[in-house]
Amino acid sequence: MKEKNIEKTKAVLKIQSEIRRILGEELRKRRFIEISPVILSPITDPLNHPTTPAHINCYGKNYNVTQSMIFHKQLALRTLEKIFVFSPNVRIEPLDKKDTGRHLFEFTQLDLEVKDVKREDVMRLCEELLIATITSIKRGCKQELKMLGRGLIVPKNPFKQIRHVDAYKQYGEDFESVISKTYNEPVWIIDIPLTSREFYDKENLEKPGFLRDMDLIYPEGYGEALSGGEREYEYERIKERILKKGQNLSQFKEYLELAEKGLPSSAGFGIGIERLTRFICGLKRIEESSLFPKIPGKACI
Ligand code: ASN
Fold it and tell me: What is the DSSP letter of 301?
């Protein structure tokens, strides 16, 4: 690596390390408990877009490599009230994602979940976390931001909210990237239609067909930051939603057995650490945010 590139990578990694520290500290201040990541499990997030499943045989049983810890987050709340985890996810994305500059097939998300709260509570929490992170990075990483040529604006809360249907109507099918390029502060997309999301996001019973969930879009063209929402937690409704999605109950057997015994109501989200690093550092491509990036379609170490 050339000297200049090494210096740039050092600055990015110092900022990423600070991002992880600040987020962890902010959550601990709010009495969140950090849990360990789950890498292998018979159950994992089916996601709403096609990925090639990654699984391995352990002692004659099939284990999936975690695509997201959503189910374990819900299950963890049977023991704890507020949890977070820096969770490595493996998602073998289709090859057409190789040039987006936003996809890695191994990445880490800060995944959190809170018992008995509403979507709006975790949205407010997310805004506070981002504001605290950006404020603290601006203060503590002046040298690094200068070396990266990044001028950062601390966003003001509450962030703007746009309903999914309105975003679609106003900005068309590609609304996410249009909104991201148009606004200079993060924007929430709320009330995503049921058919566009996984079965575990809770349906709004007052507006059937729409979910009590959200996505956050970064400004300046950096695209999607996170997704989350309230969760389906009632056994019968979970089963109904799996079937509505055309999926098999047997695929989620171990989760359903525990859900039948009772899950708490909850809301949460997961924010990608590499994407957050890319945004804060003003990087062109996501792979610049990692020492060992896993780029779809490329041989990586
Ligand atoms: N972590 C996300 C959530 O909490 C789910 C995902 O990554 N697909 O909703």
Answer: -
Task: Classify burial at 173, counting beta carbons within 10 Å of its beta carbon; exposed 0-12, middle 13-18, buried 19 or more.
Answer: exposed
The rounded Å distance from CA 269 to ligand 1 centre is 6
Give per-residue pLDDT as tens, 246-261: 999 999 999 999 999 9
CA torsion sign for 164, 282, 90, 115 is negative
8 A C-beta contact, residue 47 and residue 95: no
Q: Is the pTM of this model over 0.85?
A: yes
Question: Which of 42-46, 95-99, 161-165 shows the lowest per-residue confidence on average (mean pLDDT)?
Answer: 95-99
Task: Please check the confidence at residue 1 and state whether its pLDDT lies above 70.
Answer: no
In this structure, the residues whose C-beta lies within 6 A of any atom of ligand 1 are 45, 47, 68, 70, 109, 111, 227-228, 268-270
Backbone angles phi, psi at 12, to 5 degrees: -65, -45
